[in-house]
Write a structure and sequence with these properties.
The chain is an alpha/beta fold. The chain has a single domain, classed as Bacterial extracellular solute-binding protein, family 7 (D-Maltodextrin-Binding Protein, domain 2), CATH 3.40.190. It contains 15 helices and nine strands. Strands 1, 2, 3, 4, 5, 6, 7, 8 and 9 form a nine-stranded mixed beta sheet that branches. Helix 1 packs across helix 3 and helix 2 packs antiparallel against helix 11. The longest helix is centred in the C-terminal third of the chain and has 35 residues. It starts with 6 loop residues before the first helix and ends with a helix.
Amino acid sequence: MKAWLNNSLCAAVVGLMLIAPVQAQNKQVIKLGWTTTDGPQDPYAIGARAFKAALEADPNGQSFDVQFYPNRQLGDEKALLEGVRMGLAESGIITNAVVAQMESAFLLNDLPFLFASEEQAYELMDGSVGEKLAKKLETKGISVVGYMGGGFRNMINNVRPVVTPQDVSGVKYRVMQSPIYIGMYESLGGSPVPMAWGETYTAVQQGALDGLEIPLSVIDSTKSYEITKYLSLTNHTFSVIELVFNKRFLDRLDTEKRQAVLDAARKATLEQRKTSDALARQVAVTLKEKGMEVNEIEDPAAFREKVKPVYERFRKDIGSDLLDEALAQVQ
């Protein structure tokens, strides 16, 4: 076990090992985990259900039994991703920032204010840039079989609405354990607090944090509207979420079964994007009805100017050629 694994990761890995790969009716089990809820509007759950349905509808996929492990049953995302890499779980739906901890080139997807629309993000992931990222991760034993969408991330807090970059100043935001999210909030004058997802709700509820940044659909599915007052539609980062598999698992499948998995992943990715994006457009209204004060930002360019240093700070980690290729495409 690598020295950097902390106690919670070790515990999660042990938990994964205790889950026996029971063959239900001689079917090959695929343990598919994610850390959010299994609710009908959760973007991770939408992707999981779409994948299971697509695979089990394929004649060559009917020999699989896709088993769901939502709600951090296989640990927080870092532990889950490591479990997939080690082969203790076959598959996971993982937030991009966590994947970037294993392969730094994925930091590209989390650059603040990079994408102007969901379509722009999907075009980048479906093209040469997405292919190059996937090849880099394969060297770590992880295969990306689909780039799904979690919607744009927005700021929620209990201090003030965010209208200008100055409104971020001094506010304690939970951020994912990613240097690029920390860098973004530092450039805006905020106080980023890296924290695992499982600890966040209580920290905000108890006032240890002022707020967090999160996709609209996850605000709703996790009932974060109950612990925060202000929702500012900053759309600062598009949340790419990767459907990943243990590479050895895929490589050991016969040609027909492997193709069935890849085809199901492709179909599920397209369905998840469509469903998740449609729900996200409805959720802002729903959250307002549930008591949040919702506002848009009037000058996104002001935010984009403030975070420019973040791009150059992570150029080397991402890869200069890859960053330039992505910027040329989105601009």
